[in-house]
Amino acid sequence: MSALDTHRFLLRLFGLTVIAGAVTAAWLLVELFALTFLAVVMAVFWSDAAARLRRPGRLRIVPRWMTVFFVVFASMAFTAALFVLLLGPAVMQARQFASLLPTFLRDLWMRVQPELRSLPGMAEFDPAAIQLDTVTREFFTSGLGVVTTGVSWSLMGVTLFFVALFLALEPERYRDGLVALLPQPRQRKAAQMLARAQRGLLTWTHQTALRLAVTGTLFTAILLLLGFEFALFFGLAAAVLQIVPFLGPLLGLVGPLVTALAVAPGRALPVTMLYLLILGLQDRLLIPRVLRWHLNLPAPLLLILIIGMARILGVLGVLLAAPALTAALLLLETGLGPRWTLRVLEPARAPAPAADQD
To answer: pTM for the full model?
Structure first.
């Protein structure tokens, strides 16, 4: 065996060892793997935004690191401004809603009581026996216990931020280093797989951000026009729940619907119809017109992954299920080629000639 063959063998052995170690670490430290994946998603978004700013005719003369820092701190400042402006009033409305929720449910029970009393097993049911106000108080008391873990979560957040920042500053370095671990004939295919997965993650972040903005803004405005007392809280909750596939958008309607049925039943149908109209318009009309790529994740696989990741990671697993499935399917789809395809990532519309991809 020549020295070159020995070098290649050792390089392959080193690559396999690194991959095996990474898989083992991911299995043993699932939360660390999830946070690393979240950092990759953030880095992909920041790096793409910086690349857009540095296109010819914009900020091409500005160094890359300066553009990345501008994007990162601009996004952080925007997020902080939203928290300062919306979080305080929304939390206050959430507390008020929680204190009035037992009353709303009892009023709703009084409205439907005559019909439900006739059903088997419901004659002796009394919602007052559930002690909803006690349950609500205990829920928020236990929720305050989460604050005690704020220090550890803050440290994890800071670490996550810097990992994402370093990845965004030099994405080519880490991507090329990962590709170089593979044998030479497979490096081109691996680069294509990573590029395809990056496109899928970008599409997911763009779609999610667009859904959050559209749903939060329009639904809050509709609730204000209909006279809902907790419009900001309901609108913000509906926007955040858009991150959770399938069940999240439906849960965003529960609070306004319960309030409407208890206080003013005549507003229940309009708020439901307008909310469903917002969801339909953003998926069928707005997203295809604004974005050039569309994600089409298989619903059964996504549901199974949501359940599995929820069991392992809790809420974080539910939030990361969709991007994780996006990256995994696009890696497989690109790696296997035309022999296996689920058409996960498709153009939302016919691209214009000489137009830049989104």
So the answer is: 0.72
Question: Residue 226 carries which DSSP code?
Answer: T
64-79: pLDDT as tens digits: 778 888 888 888 888 7
User: DSSP letter string over 114-181?
Assistant: HHHHTSTT-TT--GGGG-HHHHHHHHHHHHHHGGGGHHHHHHHHHHHHHHHHHHHHSHHHHHHHHHHT
Rounded Cα gap, residues 255 and 94, in angstroms:
10
What ranges make up the beta strands (E) of the chain?
293-295, 345-347
The two three-digit tokens of residue 230, written as one number: 């907790």
What is the token pair recorded at 142?
């236990």
- Is-contact 215 242, C-beta < 8 A? yes
Quick one: pLDDT at residue 121? 55
The pLDDT confidence band at residue 197, using thresholds 50, 70 and 90, is confident
In angstroms, the first-to-last Cα distance of the chain is: 49
